[in-house]
Automatic annotation (TrEMBL):
The lineage of its organism: Bacteria, Pseudomonadati, Pseudomonadota, Alphaproteobacteria, Acetobacterales. It comes from Gluconobacter cerinus. This is Ribbon-helix-helix protein, copG family. Residues 5-38 form the Ribbon-helix-helix protein CopG domain. Pfam families: RHH_1 (PF01402). GO terms for biological process: regulation of DNA-templated transcription. Gene3D superfamilies: Met repressor-like (1.10.1220.10). It comes from the Bacteria.
Amino acid sequence: MLAGRVPAEMIKAVAEWAAAKGVSRSEAIRRLIQKGLEATK
C-alpha cells in the first residue's frame, strides 16, 4: 500500500483517465505509475 497527498486537479485528471479506460481509479494510478517508470528506461 502507498499513501500520499495529491492535488484535487490531479485526482480529477486521474479519474477522467480511468473513466476513459474503463478502469478503477486505483488501477489507473497503477497503470500511470507503470507508464512513467517504463518511460524512464
